[in-house]
Amino acid sequence: MADTLAKSNQTKRWQEMDAAHHLHPFTQHDELAAMGARVITKAKGVYIYDSEGKRLIDGMAGLWCVQVGYGREELAEAGYKALQELPFYNTFFQTTHPYVAELSQKLSEVTPKGIDRFFFANSGSEGNDSAVKIIRYYWNLKKQPKKKIIISREKGYHGVTMAAASLSGLTSMHPQADLPLPGFVHIVCPDWYGQGGTMSPDDFGIKTARALEDKILELGADNVAAFVAEPIQGAGGLIIPPATYWPEINRICKKYDVLLHVDEVICGFGRTGKWFGSDTYGIEGDMMNMAKGLSSGYQPIAAVGIGPKIGDVLFNAGEEWSHGFTYSGHPVAAAVALANIEVLQKDKLVEKSGGTTGDYFQKKLASLNDHPLVGETRGTGLIGAIELVKNKRTRERFDEAMNIGYRCRLHCFANGLVMRAIGDTMVLSPPLVITEAEIDELIGLARLCIDLIAKDIGVS
Ligand code: PXG
Questions:
Q1: Which of 75, 124, 144, 297 has the greatest number of beta carbons closer than 10 A?
Q2: 90 and 43, same domain (yes or no)
């Protein structure tokens, strides 16, 4: 009893410090202060633990990133060794170090063919900002300075810095900072479940891809620099494109000489069942952005991978490239990322995501389709979504004011599961190390929480 009391006091102390002094990302602070922040103190395998000792199965791998699970000694040791040997040195002024050189080489082996040069940043947002600068610089070097407009998609998420947020098509992100910046344009996305109406998914895939062609023709191909997109749109609601979508996008980008920058921040490192979403969907990108699963979130690090079309121009520019962060290729982050990729390879986690583990997860996810509230489940590899709807047949959603997804998520937290709600789309993206027994637990808890929300609103 005394112990429980001490724990609660400690939790309250942290909550008070936090409420007084911490500005959180994507948070309404009066609400948070009233509720008290959830304090997470440790994690192991696929489980996280809060300051009251409550265990939750982490169906979101942190924020779509902890591929190898929590508490891997290999990563901790690699970080510790680097901290002892070379806690910091920069990669400016004709300098490198073994950690970043070896990570670059390793990335060239696992990324899609042709992507073999890498620029390092510290977050997915910085990676995308850097990519925007690379795109502009490329067309300047090519003596086509008018080719500057970048097209991306509604519901796309590419981060929060000024350029990355401008790329993002989640419009709620824009007004607070007067975004998007000039030169950023958005087109429809292949959200068949939400917007496909009576069209077949394949027809809808072609239609939404042709929206890119229409926009290029409207703006003039001479003015369009690049198209930027996630293979599967993550934060926008786990939008999985119909099979017809990416081949058509490849064709259009090539036809109009528009660079294709693929944002692999969520899809990379085995999430979709192959190393990259580009491998899963046959995307022929000129450039790609990686973060999250690159280090399984153990260290902040991102990488922009560059193919020969852009790389050969940049590497032969004959002048200094005026860009780079103090921590580009930080030795500790690079060491941990390298150890992370080695664990992915040693434990065959990508193969498992595309094989036994992924198949089992998708089978169990699909078993939720018999629930009266579930309109659709969808997924690939170890990523999945559950649509909570009012009408299964017509795909009609609940009134937004009912906050069904948010309320379902609260049931999840209360019952020991972390599941993300994007509107009424519930999303799962567990660590790739998850076992079949843990998948049973995860999907069992998901069903329980969907039952609870059904009960709340009188559906049986
Ligand atoms: N691109 C994509 C595709 C992302 O998903 C970023 C870039 C930006 O990465 P950084 O490291 O700057 O955050 C992301 C990030 C959510 C959620 O709730 C998703 C992200 C970040 C935070 C929350 O779904 N994705």
A1: 124
A2: no
Cα 289 to ligand 1 centre (Å):
11
* Angle value at C-alpha 35, between 34 and 37, nearest 5 degrees: 115
Q: Which helix (H) or strand (E) holds 44?
A: strand 40-44
Q: How far apart are CA 113 and CA 109, in angstroms?
A: 8
5 inside domain: no
Strands across the sheet with 55-58, in order? Answer: 40-44, 47-50, 55-58, 417-418
Give CA 313 to chain center in angstroms. Answer: 29
In this structure, the residue with its CA closest to atom 9 of ligand 1 is 124
The ligand 1 atom nearest the CA atom of 291: 11
Q: Supply the range of the domain harboring residue 171.
A: 73-346
Question: Which atom of ligand 1 sits closest to the CA of residue 235?
Answer: 24
Residue 170 in domain: yes
241 lines ligand 1 (CB under 6 A): no
Nearest CA to ligand 1 atom 7: 158
In a domain? residue 244: yes
| pTM of the complete model beyond 0.90 | yes
- Measured distance CA(140)–CA(411) in Å, rounded: 53
Q: Identify whether residues 154 and 236 lie together within a single domain.
A: yes
- The predicted-structure confidence for 287-333, as pLDDT tens digits, reads as follows 999 999 999 999 999 999 999 999 999 999 999 999 999 999 999 99
Domain termination site, one of 346, 379, 400 = 346
Separation CA 452–CA 411 (nearest Å): 7
Name the residue with the closest Cα to ligand 1, atom 1: 158
CATH number at residue 96: 3.40.640.10
Which atom of ligand 1 approaches the CA of 25 most closely? 22
| 331 shares its domain with 221 | yes
Q: pLDDT for 194-225, tens place per residue?
A: 999 999 999 999 999 999 999 999 999 999 99
- pLDDT higher than threshold 80 for residue 3: no
Domain C-terminal end among 294, 315, 346 = 346
Q: Let me know whether 341 and 354 are in one domain.
A: no
Assess whether 148 and 269 both reside in one domain.
yes
